[in-house]
Amino acid sequence: MKFVSALVALVLLSNSEARLRELQGACPGTVQLSVSSCDYESLKAALADSTSCTAEETLALLGDSEMVDSKCEAAYSDAKSLPFSEVLNKGYQYDREFFNGGTDLNSFESPTVVHAEDTERLAAIGSALLGDTVIEWPDYLANFQECHHRAAMCCWTADKYNVGGGSCTSAGCADGDPLDNTDVCHVDMKNSPLAAHTRDGVAVFPGDAEGPVHCQGFAWDEKDEMFRGNALFHVVMKGLLSNGYTRNVPGAPMCGCVEQMPVVSHAVCSNTDVNLQVTLVKELEEELRIYIGGKNISFGNCDGKDLADYHADRGLEKFVVGDCSSGYGLERSIYLAGLVKKD
Fold first, then answer.
1. What is the distance between the terminal CA atoms of the chain, rounded to a whole angstrom?
2. Cα separation of 155 and 205, whole Å?
């Protein structure tokens, strides 16, 4: 009886292997794909579009969706990456103060500062690594630990260098202004106590009391979450490199999750475009192997739309409100300040 059972099992195994060989006959065991994200659905769609694999062959090659997503995560981990702590490379305290609007990069020290010298390391990373290396998300900083809406923003209040936009026209400016693209409604300081240096407090900015401020942000989902560190570098470091923008709205971080940032009327939007070269290897009787090779990471302007408009399904209209003098912007400012609205 045991012999018969073993024989049946052997026959079934043989038939299974034969079926797998049959399925993989027109679908190669090694496939190279170009995708925007390494995940089951993206790989499945790419196999259908760029190979001769049938739907049945694709399922045989990929296998279980959870297993594929897990292997993609491992492949991302194996790929070359740069910890964000190595971007400025000056330690935790420096990074924390920089993103809160401090350090020598943000402050005015001399009218003879040289932009190229101050930003030499950042420029090198921007040109050599930003477009093909994963820059890790700086979740060692409080500013970026609780992005529940999967969005982050920078708001600058000064223009330090005579590059790009803004009013600075000398080597170094103490009172240069950025291009003004927003109104600041209010700052709820309990959302960012490290930046505000107090546990609670409110700052309300009626009219244009805050002066010129420039805000830019970005959002992400599961498909481009791996590259949110690149998006952050693009926004904050390119803001410094390309425009010389520095410093924060009082009581708020210079950059952080939108939940910690000032509530503003508008914010320029940046989106991340990724093209990955992914190799799938599936030999008989072996698990699928996934390798991520070349990465082409670039950035767009969200089709010219505002951050909240481009990501209309994220609930970002609570942070980028469109108008500080009406609707949520006004109501929230009045509530936080403890004021009573006049008729």
1. 92
2. 15
Residue 104 neighbours by CB under 8 Å, 6+ apart:
118
Tell me the pLDDT tens digit for each residue of 121-137.
999 999 999 999 999 99
Q: What is the model's pLDDT at position 2?
A: 43
pLDDT in tens, 178-237: 999 999 999 999 999 999 888 988 888 888 888 999 999 999 998 889 999 999 999 998
- pLDDT tens digits along 283-325: 766 788 899 888 899 999 999 999 999 999 989 999 999 988 8
Cα 32 from Cα 326, distance rounded (Å): 53
Reported as half-sphere exposure (CB side, CA atoms, 13 A), residue 40 has a value of 11
DSSP state of 136: P
Q: Alpha-carbon distance 62 to 47, whole Å? A: 10
Largest distance between two CA atoms of the chain? 93
Assign 140 to helix, strand or coil. coil
**What does the block give as tokens for 209?**
């009391």
Going by C-alpha positions, the residue among 191, 176, 247, 192 that lies closest to residue 215 is 247
Residue with tokens 């420039």: 214
In this structure, what are the phi and psi dihedrals at residue 255, rounded to the nearest 5 degrees?
A: -145, 145
Report how far residue 227's alpha carbon sits from residue 212's, in angstroms, rounded to the nearest whole number: 30
What's the rounded Cα separation, in Å, for the pair 237 and 240? Answer: 5
Nearest alpha carbon to residue 231 among 159, 118, 136, 312: 136
Closest CA to 103 of 121, 118, 84, 120: 118
